[in-house]
Amino acid sequence: MARKKRSLEEFSADPAAQEMLVRAEEMGVSTAFHRADALAPCNIGAAGMCCSNCGMGPCRLTKDGLTGVCGATIDTIQARNLVRAIAVGSAAHSDHGRDMAFTLKAVANGEAEGYVIRDVPKLRTLAARYGIPIEGRSPEEIANDLADLYIAQFGQQDGQVVPIIRAPEKRQKLWKKLGVIPRGIDREVVEALHRTHIGDDQDAEHLLHHAIRTALSDGWGGSMIATDVSDILFGTPAPLLGRANLGVLREDMVNVIVHGHEPTLSEMIVAASQDPEIIEYARAAGAKGVNLAGICCTANEILMRQGVPAAGNFLHQELVILTGAVEAMVVDVQCIMQALVGLAQNFHTLIITTSPKVKIKDAVHIEFDEHQALTIAKEILRRAIDNFKNRGEVHIPAAQSELIPGFSHEYINYMLGGSYRASFRPLNDAIMAGRIRGVAAIVGCNNPRSTQDYLHSYVTQELLKQDVLIVETGCGAIATAKLGLMLGEAGLDQVGPGLREICETVGIPPVLHMGSCVDNSRILTVLTQMVEEGGLGDDIDQIPAVGLAPEWMSEKALSIGAYCVASGVYVIFGGSSPVSGMPDRVSDSDLVSRYISEGWEKLYGGKLEFIPDPEEMVRKTLEHIDKKRAALGLPEYDPSRFGRSGDARILELEKLPLPERREALYGVPVR
Fold first, then answer.
1. Which CATH architecture has domain 74-234?
2. Given 99, 134, 408, 522, which is the most exposed site by the fewest CB atoms within 10 A?
3. Does residue 140 have a pLDDT over 50?
C-alpha cells in the first residue's frame, strides 16, 4: 500500500531541495523521495521478523509463538538480521581502510602517481605508538612499515587489532574481560556471517556478543585505519572556509561532482582540476575552468582538506543532476543510487563509475588505479569537459551557506591550548563548570522516509539552546552546514549562554565539523583524550556525552552505533528500529530490543535505542547528560550562571565574599 503523497516541505527541510523537486515533478521524473512514497516498506521485514537465510523460507513470524521452518524463534531471527547488518557495515568501512593502507604502501614505495606523504608528524607519531622505529629513518621507510602493519590487521587470525591500544586503559580491560577485542578485521566479519548461517548460532545474546566484536573491528580497526592513512597522505584537517548546497554549482564552468566515500580518487581529481593543461582544455571548450563539488562523504573528505564545496548530502545526489549543470558525476563506493543513470539520461550528465567493486549498468566505467592516479583523473576530467558542449537548460538554485570544516581531534587539541600547551583541559573544565552541559555527536545519513535534514536540524538546534556542544560527521554535518551553524559567528543568538561564552572565547562555531562517516573514529579519539585529561571519570561511559543518528538508513550506521555502544556511549537512532517486532501481535518480540539497550548498558555502560520522535530524542539526551554530570559530582546545569561576560560581571563578582566569588567563577566550591 502506497503512502499518502507528501508535500515539498514534508519531503525536505532544504529550500534548494524543494526547488529541485518542483523541477522533477514538472519534468515527470522520479527521485528517491517519490519512490519512498510509492513503495510502502514491508512491516514484517522492517521489524526484523522475516528470515531469508536459506531456501526453506522466507519465514515471516506474524503470530505469537510462530517459528521458522527450522524452528528459529523471533529473537534468534532478529539477532541474526542485526548481526548481518553490522557485519556488512563493518566490511564496507573496513574495506575502505584496507584500500587506504594499500595506497600508503604504494606511495611509500614510489609506485603511486601524484601522491606524497603530507603529514609526516602524524606518520611518526602513529608509528612510534605502534612500536615501529622512527629515528634516523625516512618518511617512506616508516610509511612502508606502518602500511604493512595496517594491512596485516585485516587478515590477522589471533591476538588483537593494534588500534585498540588507543582506547582508554579501563575500557581495554573491560573488552578483554568480556572477550570482545577483535582478533582480525576480516575474521570477525566472516565469523559473523558463519554464525548467522542456517543451523548455526541460535542464542540471541550470544549472537549479539559477536556483533559487538565485529563492530569494534570497524570503529577501533578499519575506520580508524582509514582516517589515519587519509590524514598521512592528504593532510590532517584544520579549519578553512567552505561552502555547501546546490548553489555552489557554476553556470560558466564545467561542473564535476565527486560522490562516494574514498578520498584517493577525489583528492587526485582536485589536483588535476588545478593543472594548467586541464584549465586550458576547459577554456578551449568554452568554459572558464573546472568546478568541483562533492556529494555525501566524499564531499566531507575534500571539503575539510581542500575547501572544495559540498553540493549536498545523500539525498542531493539526484537533485544535483536535475540542475542540468553537471557534466559528470564521478562515483566510487557506497551510498550511490542505481537510479542515477536513468535520471541522467534526461540530461547530458555522464555517470562515471571508477571502483573495481562497483559498476552500474549503462554507466561509463573508468577504473581507478592509484599507480596511475593523476593520468586517470585527467582522463575523467577531459571526458567531462568534452561533454560541456552538450549542456541544455540549466536551473541552479541560489541557496548556499558558508561553513568552517576541518576540526580534527588534533586541531581541537591545538585550538584549546596552542602549540606549546595543546590540551583538552579547557574543554573538560568547561564541562565541569557547567558552561558546557555536555557533548553530542550527531552523525549519519539522510532517509527519504523522513523529512530530509529536519531531524538533524531540529535536534542540533534544540541541544545548542541547552549548552550542548555538537560535533558532527557525514551527511548530518552537511545538513547543519546548510543551516549556517558551522561559522564562528553564526547562530550564536540561538546558543545557550555558557556555550556561547566558550565559542566567543575560543573562536569556534557551536557545531564542529569532524569529517566523513569513517571519521567517527576521530570522535572516539576525542572522548579518549577527554578521559585521559582527567576530571570526567576514567572511562568513556562516565562522560556526559550522547551519540545520535537521527535519519539513519545504512548498515554502516548500525555498525557505528554498535561500536559506540561498546565504547561506553548512549546512542540514539531516529526512525524505525530494525528489531522492533510487533508487540501487539508477537508477545516475545522485544527480547533483542531490550538487550541492545538494557543488556548492553549493564555490560558496556552504553546502550542503543531507537526513538522516532525528535522531542523525545532531545529529552533523553539531556536526561542522560544530566545523569552523568550528577554521577561525577558536577554542579547541576544552571544557564543563569553564565552569559554575562566582561567588566560588568567582574565588578559584580568583586562584591561577593571570596569563597562565593570562586564558586561563581569556577562553577564548583574551591576549598
1. Up-down Bundle (1.20)
2. 134
3. yes
